[in-house]
C-alpha cells in the first residue's frame, strides 16, 4: 500500500482499468480537487468478479498503462489487492482500514458504477465502511436518484457543497459530484481494438 500519514484524506479509486484512459484520469483529478484529498490511490484490481477474466489484460500491463496516464504526483498507482489476495471491495476496504489507523478514506466511483452497485458483493457493508464520492459520468447523471443504492441510502446523501469534508464524515455518507465528463469508456476502447 502507498505510504500515508495520520490525519491525511485519501481517495480510493479502484477498478480493472482495462484499459485505463483519460476519463479515469479526469475522475481522479476531479476527486483530488473537489474532495480536498492529500492522495488518491488508483487501485488496479487483479480481477473483477462481475467480468470475465478472459477479457482482462495482464495486471502488469494495466499497471504500466495506469502509471502513464496518472501523472499527478498525488495519485499513487497500486495493485496491493493482488499481494493480499483480496477479491471483493468490502474486503479491500476492511484491509485498508486495518492497516491505516488515523487516515480518513473516501471510496470513489463513477456514476456508471453506482447504477449496478447493488450487485456488488456485500454492497451494504461497503456503504457502511467509508464515505463514498460518486463522480458524474456521461449517461449516468440520474443514477444518483434512481439506483437501488441511492434509494436505500437517500438519508445518507450529503450535498456536494460539503465534498471537501466528506472524508471526515462517518459512514454511511455519500455525495454525487457533478462536473466535466469524458465520453471514453474501457469497453468501447476494447471494442475498437477488437478485444
TrEMBL record:
Pathway info: Cofactor biosynthesis; NAD(+) biosynthesis; deamido-NAD(+) from nicotinate D-ribonucleotide: step 1/1
Q: Which keywords describe this protein according to UniProt? A: ATP-binding, NAD, Nucleotide-binding, Nucleotidyltransferase, Pyridine nucleotide biosynthesis, Transferase
Q: Which InterPro entries match?
A: Cyt_trans-like, NadD/NMNAT, Rossmann-like_a/b/a_fold
Q: Which reaction does it catalyse?
A: nicotinate beta-D-ribonucleotide + ATP + H(+) = deamido-NAD(+) + diphosphate
Q: Which GO terms describe its molecular function?
A: nicotinate-nucleotide adenylyltransferase activity
Stated EC number for the protein is 2.7.7.18
Gene3D superfamilies, per the entry: HUPs
Start and end of every Cytidyltransferase-like domain? 12-191
NCBIfam families attached to this UniProt entry: nicotinate (nicotinamide) nucleotide adenylyltransferase, PRK00071.2-2, PRK00071.2-4
What is the stated purpose of this protein? Catalyzes the reversible adenylation of nicotinate mononucleotide (NaMN) to nicotinic acid adenine dinucleotide (NaAD).
Which family does the record claim for this protein? Belongs to the NadD family.
Specify the protein name: Probable nicotinate-nucleotide adenylyltransferase
Origin organism of this chain? Aquamicrobium soli
